[in-house]
Amino acid sequence: MKQEQQDARREVTEVAPGIARLELPIRMPGLGHVNCYALLDDEGVAIVDPGLPGNATWRALQDRLKQLDLEPRHVHTVVITHSHPDHFGCANRFQRESGAKIIAHCHFAEDWGHSHGHEVSTEDMEAQRESRDAAERERDPDAEEKQAKVRKAESRKRAVSRWDGPSPWGGKPPRPPLKYRWRRWMSNVTRRESFMPEITDPVEHGNVLHLAGREWFVHHTPGHTLDHFCLHDPETGVFLSGDHVLPTITPHISGMTSGADPLQSFFYALDRVGEISGVGNVLPAHGHPFEELRKRTDAIKRHHEERLQMLRNISAEIGGGTVEDYSKRLFKPRSWGSMAESETYAHLEHLRIAGEAECWRDDEGALRYRTR
Ligand SMILES: [Zn+2]
Ligand SMILES: [Zn+2]
User: How far apart are CA 179 and CA 257, in angstroms?
Assistant: First the structure.
């Protein structure tokens, strides 16, 4: 099991001077916990990424804070690295309970709805499902049959979760039944209204924050979301990396953003943080702290370059195709759907903008790509 998939532990650990790691439970594909970091100072505590909305997270937060002799009323600041629900969920609760100021990027949630909150790449989710199924088959000889049923249910769920409207890459996604569309629309409206925090202190690249008694530089790192940022303390070499740089998995890069080339933004942001000197302690939003930031940013870039090469090979083989055609060759059937297509689209658009692929609409209105 990958470290990002491990369940949240109750135990609070000191990971840097004046910084504690609080693991909060989440149930999201490919992830078992989210790290909330508590940055202590003379006035109380600032917390970074306060988990999912809801009572389970709130109780876990109270329990972890108590181990530091703190209560929610001591939280004077909440920092949100990016607009995904497992990172900002309980922010507004702190706002109500302690009047905490809420710090997020000035473009916070502008892309809300585009990324659908997906956290990890389709490939990582696929790998997780495969290894879980293999382990189960080893334990239980009847597992094969059960897994076939699960795969069938997954494919039904995927059909329902596809976009209601047409995607930017065209084609005709199956439209879910009206009752599902209605239910989803309702839950989106109520969810957004009830837990979206009010950002009191918007920040941008280059700003300096005073947390844990020292200065932190804001590094805007778009890619996973448009509003993602990381924090760097040059004094102690600590880098809070959010989802931008994770220890063993790669974040989901959606093609459904307002940016023209989210993958290029991600590459650029990886290069920029990889160049920061003196970082010796990277604190990610999922998984354990690690030391070598540059090694990891290089590996993540390599991973995407390999995916781009696979697309070039597929193009040479099939002589051009739709986003769906490419995604069905990149991923196994159980991963097919809007999320896989959105990632594939981001990679194909990157090749097109780099002048490496041509693109046109076919008679059905679907975009077709062919690499040069
Ligand atoms: Zn995220
Ligand atoms: Zn995350």
Answer: 27
